[in-house]
């Protein structure tokens, strides 16, 4: 009865000893690398590591089809350390490893390395354990964050960014407040309500111009609620609209600035749409954009609400819902209908001008 715990203890000590030896070898190797090798290619960078850098340092392990890395940048240093250790072991005569795979699943890092070596398996497991306390996005200390259909190891900052937050009220700059702004109707699709991640974003101007993008990064199918998987994802347009988020953000900033006159966003879900749009733009707004959106269902004029609701429902009937561009278009149509029923003086009051 007593042999199992004893065996486990021995195994644990052996594993700790082996990892300690590997650590020494890796440190020794790093020191010699610093002395003999062009440092910019070989030495592990401080802080964040670019994907290209990681892959060009360990092409034999990581480049497809030999291996694959599917996780956030925050965990790249762990992958780098693991590869360094494996490389050191190979230099000491260990047979070369086979397929290497590191991927994020439900907030955890899974590492699979094809190798007969006990130490390689221990190293892989060690990397997995370390990942559980490191933000997958930035590499700072983190912990598992759970939401509906969402699991990710994140630091407090990145966890807060994933949660919906209240829209901040920012005073409107004087240069903007002097004339009636041109209105832009905003709609977004996102993964779920607990940890919304932007999937697609559309803006349609009063005058008809539109902007639309679907993001190819920053969200995953696994993070989507069942509703989104069923109703939103099948409607994505794809093609030229499928864009890397940095590119989509630059395009949006240029599009907004291009109006050249004060503009203000109208949304029926400021807590989500507006917040996600600011996120995409990294809070860098063009100077002609109002720093706060106009709530389509403004609380300041509750009597307008039924009228807006009716107009919105009518507009939605002709368009397919849950496609951001169609929904933004519906919002604009509803606005037009509402305007016809509204005295200009009331409208000005609504717009607070
Ligand atoms: Zn972080």
Walk me through this protein's architecture.
The structure is a single chain. By secondary structure, the protein is of the alpha/beta class. It folds into two domains: 3-157, no CATH class; 174-350, Nucleotidyltransferase, domain 5 (2-Layer Sandwich). 45% of the residues lie in helices and 16% in strands. The protein is built from 14 helices and eleven strands. A six-stranded mixed beta sheet has the order 9-8-7-6-10-11. It has a three-stranded mixed beta sheet with strand order 1-2-3. A two-stranded antiparallel ribbon has the order 4-5. A hairpin with a 7-residue loop joins β6 and β7. α1 crosses α5 (76-91) and α5 packs antiparallel against α6 (118-131). The longest helix is centred in the first third of the chain and has 34 residues, at 3-36. The model has no long low-confidence stretch (mean pLDDT 84). Bound molecules: zinc ion (ZN). Zinc ion is lined by residues 135, 137-138, 140, 142, 154-155, 157-158. Residues 135, 137-138, 140, 142, 154-155, 157-158 line the site of zinc ion (ZN).
Bound molecules: zinc ion
Got a strand count? 11
Supply the helix-strand structural class.
alpha/beta
Percent of residues in helices comes to: 40-55%
CATH-scheme architecture of the largest domain: 2-Layer Sandwich
Shape: elongated
Rg from Cα: 26 Å
Q: Count of helices?
A: 14
What's the number of structural domains?
2
CATH superfamily of the largest domain: Ribonuclease H-like superfamily/Ribonuclease H
Q: Tell me, what is the CATH class of the largest domain?
A: Alpha Beta
Give the uncertain stretches in residue-range form.
none
| N-to-C order of helices and strands | HHHHEHEEHEEHHEEEHEHEHEHHH
Mean pLDDT across all amino acids: 84
| Terminal residue distance | 82 Å
Largest sheet: spatial strand order: 9-8-7-6-10-11
The CATH topology of the largest domain corresponds to: Nucleotidyltransferase, domain 5
State the major sheet.
Answer: 6 strands, mixed
């Amino acid at each position: 009865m007593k042999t199992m715990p004893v065996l486990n203890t021995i195994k644990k000590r052996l594993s700790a000893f082996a990892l300690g030896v590997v650590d020494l070898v890796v440190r020794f190797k790093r020191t010699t690398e610093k002395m003999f090798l062009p440092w910019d290619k070989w030495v592990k960078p401080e802080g964040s590591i670019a994907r290209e850098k990681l892959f060009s340092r360990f092409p034999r392990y990581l480049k497809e089809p030999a291996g694959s890395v599917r996780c956030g940048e925050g965990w790249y240093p762990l992958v780098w350390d693991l590869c360094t250790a494996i490389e050191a072991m190979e230099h000491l005569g260990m047979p070369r490893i086979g397929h290497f795979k590191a991927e994020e699943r439900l907030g955890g890092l899974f590492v699979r390395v094809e190798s007969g070596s006990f130490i390689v398996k221990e190293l892989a497991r060690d990397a997995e354990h370390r990942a559980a306390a490191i933000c997958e996005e930035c590499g700072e200390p983190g912990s598992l964050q759970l939401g509906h259909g969402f699991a990710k190891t994140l630091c407090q900052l990145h966890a807060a960014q994933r949660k919906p937050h209240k829209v901040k009220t920012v005073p409107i700059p004087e240069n903007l407040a002097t004339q009636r702004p041109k209105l832009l109707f905003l709609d977004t699709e996102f993964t779920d309500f607990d940890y919304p991640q932007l999937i697609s974003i559309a803006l349609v101007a009063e005058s008809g111009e539109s902007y639309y993008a679907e993001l190819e990064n920053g969200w995953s199918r696994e993070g989507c609620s069942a509703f989104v998987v069923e109703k939103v994802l099948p409607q994505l347009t794809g093609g030229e609209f499928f864009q890397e988020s940095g590119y989509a953000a630059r395009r949006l900033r240029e599009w907004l600035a291009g109006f050249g006159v004060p503009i203000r966003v109208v949304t029926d879900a400021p807590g989500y749409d507006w917040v996600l749009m600011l996120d995409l733009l990294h809070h860098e707004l063009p100077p002609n954009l109002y720093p706060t959106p106009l709530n389509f269902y403004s609380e300041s004029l509750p009597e307008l609400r039924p009228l807006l609701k009716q107009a919105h429902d009518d507009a939605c009937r002709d368009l397919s819902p849950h496609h951001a561009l169609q929904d933004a278009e519906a919002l604009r149509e509803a606005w037009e209908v509402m305007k016809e029923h509204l005295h200009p003086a009331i409208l000005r009051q609504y717009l607070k001008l």
